[in-house]
Amino acid sequence: MGSTSSIEWTEATWNPVTGCSKVSPGCLNCYAERMARRLQAMGNPNYRDGFEVRVHDHMLTVPPTWAKARMVFVNSMGDLFHEDVPTDFIRRVFDVMVRTPRHTYQLLTKRADRLAEIAPNLTWPENVWMGVTVEDNEHLNRVDRLTHVPSAVRFLSVEPLLGQLRDLNLEGVDWVIVGGESGPGARPMQKRWVLDIRDTCMEQGVAFFFKQWGGTRKKTSGRELESRTWSQMPHGRIAVAHRVAKH
């Protein structure tokens, strides 16, 4: 089953793959791992193995049952391009997205090398947006891999932002989401890091979405932001470009 989402930049989640493993510093305090343990304790059958990587054939039948168009985050509880996910299953997930053009699907991965390897053998309809997660300057190579993927929209999830992205190049990128880490053990995010990314987006005409400061602070509200501007996204979708307020 899919579900509605509290994630500000999407409307629903769909998890044909659950579980993951840590590949870089951004994974340290993974919210999905904590949630998976909770769902396992609650007896949810999709999480009987906790956060081990599992594919769920029965989940492939879910999006066609949604009559109303949705913005769907694919695999909020895992990584479709994890090395333990069979390539054939990835193709089956893409087939579902191809067959349901009324929905817009947003995919994120930290495994940009495998994404780039498999991408030429996948069908990329206009309703599929592909993104990579980048938490620090040392992992900007993921952005380069992303820009070679034939996705209608390419985006970055810079969350949790753990350092200054000194070498960020947004050529070929349509949208950037920025946020600090939240939850137990959250690592701090500096205002300057966010402002630098915002300014780069504004200079290059890339839509910018500021999600949250993270840490122990309450979620950022509109009143805490200086102003809003609007950036038109492809296919009529809108992303809010926030000017970050003083922190």
Explain what you see.
- With 247 residues, the chain is α/β, with parallel strands linked by helices.
- The protein has one domain (3-243).
- The chain has helices at 31-41, 87-99, 112-118, 141-146, 191-204; strands spanning 3-4, 12-14, 17-18, 54-55, 71-74, 104-109, 128-133, 153-158, 175-179, 207-212, 227-232, 238-243.
- The strands form 3 sheets. Strands 1-2-5-6-7-8-9-10 form an 8-stranded mixed sheet. A two-stranded antiparallel ribbon has the order 3-4. It has a two-stranded antiparallel ribbon with strand order 11-12.
- Strand 7 (128-133), helix 4 and strand 8 form a beta-alpha-beta unit.
- The longest helix has 14 residues, at 191-204.
- The protein is globular, with a radius of gyration of 17 Å.
- The model is unreliable at 218-247 (pLDDT under 50).
Can you describe this structure in just a few lines?
With 247 residues, the protein is of the alpha/beta class. It has one domain (3-243).
What keyword list fits this structure?
247 residues; globular; two-stranded antiparallel sheet; alpha/beta; 21% helix; eight-stranded mixed beta sheet
Cα radius of gyration in angstroms: 17 Å
Ends distance? 39 Å
Low-confidence stretches: 218-247
Largest sheet: 8 strands, mixed
**Mean pLDDT, all residues:** 88
| Tally of individual helices | 5
Classify the beta-strand content into a percent band: 15-25%
Order of helices and strands: EEEHEEHEHEHEEHEEE
Assembly state of the chains shown:
single chain
